[in-house]
Amino acid sequence: MQKYKVLVADDHDLFREGIKTLLKKMNNVILAGEVKRGKHVVELYKEVKPDAVIMDISMPDINGIEATKEILRIDPQAKIIILSMHDDEEYIGRCLDAGVKGYVIKSESGMELRHTIELVLQGNSYFSHFAQDIVLSRLKQYRSHKHTPIEQPHITKRELQILTLISQGLTSNAIAEKLFISIRTVETHRTNIMRKLGVKNVVELINKAAELDLV
C-alpha cells in the first residue's frame, strides 16, 4: 500500500495533536513532520517533500496564505489544505487565489477533514461543505452585479444533475449511489462537464458553474 507523507503546520498544540491523531487512523498516511511557524513549514517542505500539507492561516512569521505562495513557487504541484478558524469570504477567497487544494473550517468534523485529505491526496481539489457555501455565495454576489451575458455551454440534463450534486460536495461514489449509475459513468460525465466548462479541478468547476448560473 502506498504511504502518503503529510506535513502539519499549526501554532496551536491542541489542533496539531488532533490532526496527528486523525492521521494515525488513516492507514495510507504517515506524519512527515510538524511545525508551529510559517517560515518553518516552507523550510521543512523543501527537506521532506511531503505529498500534502495541512496548514493553519494564522501563524507567526508568515501566515498560511503567504506560506502557500512560497511553497507553490518551489513546487507548483504542491497539495495544500488550509485548516482554519476563518469562515468568511475574504480569507477563503484569498486561499482560493493563492492556489490551495482544500479548505476546512476548524469547527467542522474530523470526518470532513479526513474526507478532504483523501480527496486532495488523490489529486482532487475539495473545499468543505461550509467553505463551498461561502465560495458559492461570493460568486453569486459577483454574478448579480455583472450585466454582460455569458454564453452557456450545452450541458445535458444528466450532466446538470451530476454538476449540482458535485457542487453540494458529494463524491463520485455518493453520486453513483444516489442516481443508481456506476462510478465509471459518473466519472465520464464529470470529465465531459469539466471539458465543456474549460476547467481542471472541482473548485474551478464549482466557480464556473456558479458564474454561469448552472447551480
Automatic annotation (TrEMBL):
<dbReference type="Pfam" id="PF00072">
    <property type="entry name" value="Response_reg"/>
</dbReference>
<keyword id="KW-0804">Transcription</keyword>
<dbReference type="Pfam" id="PF00196">
    <property type="entry name" value="GerE"/>
</dbReference>
<feature type="domain" description="Response regulatory">
    <location>
        <begin position="5"/>
        <end position="121"/>
    </location>
</feature>
<dbReference type="InterPro" id="IPR058245">
    <property type="entry name" value="NreC/VraR/RcsB-like_REC"/>
</dbReference>
<keyword id="KW-0597">Phosphoprotein</keyword>
<dbReference type="InterPro" id="IPR000792">
    <property type="entry name" value="Tscrpt_reg_LuxR_C"/>
</dbReference>
<dbReference type="GO" id="GO:0006355">
    <property type="term" value="P:regulation of DNA-templated transcription"/>
</dbReference>
<dbReference type="GO" id="GO:0003677">
    <property type="term" value="F:DNA binding"/>
</dbReference>
<feature type="modified residue" description="4-aspartylphosphate">
    <location>
        <position position="56"/>
    </location>
</feature>
<dbReference type="InterPro" id="IPR039420">
    <property type="entry name" value="WalR-like"/>
</dbReference>
<keyword id="KW-0238">DNA-binding</keyword>
<feature type="domain" description="HTH luxR-type">
    <location>
        <begin position="148"/>
        <end position="213"/>
    </location>
</feature>
<dbReference type="GO" id="GO:0000160">
    <property type="term" value="P:phosphorelay signal transduction system"/>
</dbReference>
<dbReference type="InterPro" id="IPR011006">
    <property type="entry name" value="CheY-like_superfamily"/>
</dbReference>
<protein>
    <submittedName>
        <fullName>Response regulator transcription factor</fullName>
    </submittedName>
</protein>
<keyword id="KW-0805">Transcription regulation</keyword>
<dbReference type="InterPro" id="IPR016032">
    <property type="entry name" value="Sig_transdc_resp-reg_C-effctor"/>
</dbReference>
<dbReference type="InterPro" id="IPR001789">
    <property type="entry name" value="Sig_transdc_resp-reg_receiver"/>
</dbReference>
